[in-house]
Specification:
The chain has about 325 residues and is α+β, with helices and mostly antiparallel strands. The chain is built from six helices and 14 strands. Strands 1, 2, 3, 7 and 10 form a five-stranded mixed β-sheet that branches. Strands 4, 5, 6, 8 and 9 form a five-stranded antiparallel β-sheet that branches. Strands 11-14 form a two-stranded antiparallel ribbon. A hairpin with a 2-residue loop joins strand 2 (about 160-165) and strand 3.
Length: about 325
Amino acid sequence: RRERQRFVDKNGRCNVQHGNLGGESSRYLSDLFTTLVDLKWRWNLLIFLLTYTVAWLVMASMWWGIAYLRGDLHRPRDNTYSPCVANVYNFPSAFLFFIETEATIGYGHRYITERCPEGIVLFLFQSLLGSIVDAFLIGCMFIKMSQPKKRAETLMFSRAAVVSQRDGKLCLMFRVGNLRNSHMVSAQIRCKLIKSRQTPEGEFLPLDQCELDVGFGTGADQLFLVSPLTICHEINSKSPFFCLSQRSLRSEQFEIVVILEGIVETTGMTCQARTSYTEDEVLWGHRFLPVMSLEDGFFRVDYSQFHATFEVPTPSYSVKE
């Protein structure tokens, strides 16, 4: 097997990195919410902790600053004096007052007096800022946790694609399956052939994308994915593999990207799973082993045979030949 660079890995990750963006990198900051959602979990948790820690320390410092400027820290036990915040003697007590206010705990020992207009203004600012920070960060974490990426890991693709005859026609086939009992609503599958080519004008296209027909006209691309299905691409005069033979397959260099999309039944969110097959993973003259069997009152799927194939008599020449 020839190891080469893939455009899409077997697990669906796209091997594309964007560099030298220049001023375009500012667009990531203009859409900060999506940028945070796209980050890895360790960075999300770090930003989450740092944002709240810095916000808490800054706001507690502002409450301590008001008490310091008013002289409340120098007369903590004077019953005849009305401080801005009762029972705030130092920075830890100011920090505790901020936490009690922000978390709406309200123990009752510390409270704002009516003779402190700056404290009232700061309290309103703290309430607005706290609501914005909570909505932004908690919303970001909720969206990230509810992303259907993990659901895509329970959608299965065969390790290899096969070429053999079906109904007297030469076809390229691969298998898909759903490991969960919950269904994928409106599941649809698409295939892209990625191959370098040169146009008649001399332009070289290193990653030219071509659509592979997997049943658009007949509706076969709309899947009822309750059991493993074999997806079939008929090789005919309109297919990019019209001139492909068993012999020429050894010298070809292409990649077939498979995209399976559907709506997760339990959450209603759109899920997408991807994989790819290179020319080394296309087995000529093979067919997939059956995985369905009829048991007592139900159908049983044997996933141990999901990737298994066996050889069948198949013409070695191309459809064109």
